[in-house]
Amino acid sequence: MIFDCRPKTSLVEANFDARSVNKRIGLIVLATDHTSEGDFARMCDPDQIGIYANRITYKNPGTRANLLATGPRLTEAASQILPGDALDVIAYSCTAASVVLGNAVVGDYLKAGKSDTPFVTPSSAAFDALEALDAKRISVLTPYSASISQEVFQYFADNGLQIASANYLGVDDDREIARLSESTIIEAACAAMEPSADALFISCTGLRAAVCIHRIEDRIGKPVVTSNQAMIWRCLQHLDSEQVVHGFGHLFQHSIKDRMSAQ
Fold first, then answer.
1. What contacts 24+ positions apart, CB below 8 Å, involve 180-187?
2. Same domain, 112 and 131
3. What is the pTM of this model?
């Protein structure tokens, strides 16, 4: 094939939009995460919202020491998401790490890398979600070991929620957590639900719980909050998004603004 034409500059003037998409979410996930990005893709309109992800080094099993070690890695990870461009919100997608580190500490690490950007963690988002649902007494299910699960249970108790029941599956590798079957998640969730509880929280961003929400809610007759669902819901609140999300639970019928106006 012979290339025999002379390249020339287009006569069309290049014009630019302010952004390629209207809203930007920065997302930091563990190197071993199989689930978070897929859930964001399911619940966020790609024509309106860009999801910009970065991964940080993580070593299994899910011990307190390994979770704490993720903290200092957040700053560089945040700084490398669209360097020089603003994000509307940034999320760290690890529930257990946000509990062990503390949400304020996570925020400090993230802001050091991406200043003036609101941040969301799954644990803080879950608390906000339960508050929006007016849930004061909850059941909790985690996939974690007993020791990490205890810290998650205590987090909600320390924030003023009554724990009606607390159950865990005892899996300490997030790659295996991601392989837990939907039937296992659904049956464990239904078994974990205390009838007197106002809602059920299912912890872990690696767990494929979000796609099971509507089936669990149908069976238990109460709202279900999961780590990824709550985190995405809270991110959309930061964006002032009017996007309607279907199929991921009663939570998306509520907003923090609605809750505040009702008080």
1. 180/143, 180/207, 180/208, 182/208, 182/211, 182/212, 185/209, 185/212, 186/212, 186/215, 186/216, 186/219
2. no
3. 0.93
